[in-house]
Design goal:
Elements: E1 5-12, H1 24-27, H2 29-41, E2 46-50, H3 59-66, E3 71-75, H4 87-102, E4 108-109, H5 118-126, E5 131-132, E6 139-140, E7 146-147, E8 156-160, E9 163-167, H6 182-188, H7 190-197, E10 205-208, H8 226-233, H9 239-252, E11 256-257, H10 260-268, E12 275-277
Length: about 280
Amino acid sequence: MSKRIACVTLDIESDLLDKSGRIHMFENTDLMRRYSTIVQKHKIKVTGFLVTSLIEKYSAEIGRLSHTIPIEFGVHSHSHERRLKYFADEVSSSIAAYEDFFGAPPIGYRAPNGLINREGIISLIENQFKYDASIFPSIRMDEYGYSNLHLPNKPFRFVHSGNEIIELPAACLDTIRLVFSMSYIKFLGLDIYKTLMRFFPLPDVVVLDSHPYDYYTNRIAANIRGWKRYAHLRNGDKAFEVFESVVTLLQEKGYEFMFMSELYKYVTDLPKPPTVSVEKLR
């Protein structure tokens, strides 16, 4: 990469383990104001990946957000269904809902929990998505476990039968592949990341993953059980401060903030981004 690029992404889905489909940030003006103030202050851009079944419930809030901060939208499935056997159905339903609301087809997709396989990538290619942002090039060790250590820690092309889609993976520290996302940074603390970055730097392209509930997990703590409750509550009362510190750190390191669509266009103009066959996926 000839320059450093950062993309702030927001997975717009229901609050963690909330079966009612509620998003506190969309219902609380103070939460939305605090988030928007940071985005405006630092002149950054946000790409929101929408669970499209929530569009009807929060259409006014989505419209208001669009007029408040620089934001564009991609797709984050239709119902946040994680079971891969329903992936193709989720894609088709999400496209229909997105087109009905925005009047144009989506170009970017992110699968819930980063759960995607070769059939999923093929489905996105067949449905003419331009880029995917589902891959976390790391290891996940919970019930949704996977290992993507064999995949590049930078943008690349997935190819299948002469067709392709650009993959814009989530950020991980080099070599150790520690995920650099709001949930991880809150849990471990930004100071630990700063120390590790001396030896294992961030890649030139940073796609920062986050969710609305990352900023107010203390309000939904009753939904969460076991060790995940502790993990999500770490620095929960300082989440907005952590977010601003992350943005400031990226700015100090010389990263330019882009929409994911802008990053996609930038990557397509590169001479030789890495190419990976979809057969490399499970």
